[in-house]
Design goal:
The protein has 318 residues and is of the alpha/beta class. It is 31% helix and 14% strand. Strand 4 and strand 5 form a beta hairpin. It binds adenosine-5-diphosphoribose.
Length: 318
Amino acid sequence: MEKIRQFFAQKLNLGSASNESLKVLETVDFDGVMKYIRDGCCKSVVTMAGAGMSTSAGIPDFRSPGSGLYDNLGKYDLPRPEAVFDISFFEKNPQPFFDLARQLYPSELKPTICHRFIRLLEQKGLLLRHYTQNIDTLERAAGVSDERIVEAHGTFHTSHCTGCRQRYDQQWMKDQIFSEDVPKCESCGAVVKPDIVFFGENLPSRFFRLVQDDLKKCDLLIIFGTSLAVQPFASLVDRVPDTCPRLLVNKEKCGRPNLLMRMMGQSGLEFDSSSNYRDVAWLGTCDDGAVAMAAALGWQEELRRLQGEDGARPEEAA
Ligand code: APR
């Protein structure tokens, strides 16, 4: 009985052991995380991204009330909003997905300044891996190396025939999407589907191959623009070492533990807990967060140069 009590006490964080021994931040706030980076205390940063990182590129997120995608699918007569990304629904009726893809497809693939910040982390030799839920390929457009990117929910970068598995590139799919037809394979005539992960499909094997070791090595986790609503991606926050600081850059706090998560051994992000020794929330837009980090780290000029790389107007760093 005592063992069970200890298990739940530990999982529910009751009377938890002192976290002093695990604390690596001088102050558990944005400045403390920036000092931790400036002092060279981290070499293996893992970043996690959600749709909030791309909204300033003109791509709506999913769950923001009113503007989020799931609030704007009424005309597709779906059983529920997520059905548009459900593989069994797609196999029966792919049209709504492709209509939506046409609406969503960014007219130009212009990375945001936050995407450039990920590139800058790589240039600084600090980026171990960038895990993204986004399918927009903006990290690639920003110049982040393929090796450093894990597109956990797939990508528009490639597509495959659902019949004969023939591979098609991003431009072919884009042309098909804007032709208003459902893309059909040039060899066998079956529907061609972008390599994005639909509900009901497995995440790419690359995700499972890398996540184990990456998160064990991670000494700073930075989470950009996600509600952490979808598993298994959201569980990454619980798989870093107990000493690893976790910085959320988002319009709202999220990822906090509910009882079920605690019962499953997931503590989530504990900003508000009295025993919090490592979780920091920077509330605002991803772009402003990237600019604030660059300013705190003395990287403004380099970030400005990267943003201007493709001739785009360099954003005014704060
Ligand atoms: N800057 C910072 N945060 C932002 C911004 C922004 N410019 N815009 C939106 N946000 C925040 C929202 O407040 C929300 O907390 O980003 C989060 C976006 O959450 P979601 O819309 O749920 O998107 P995401 O977390 O990426 O969804 C995960 O759900 O449907 C699936 O496969 C889909 O990959 C997607 C997954």
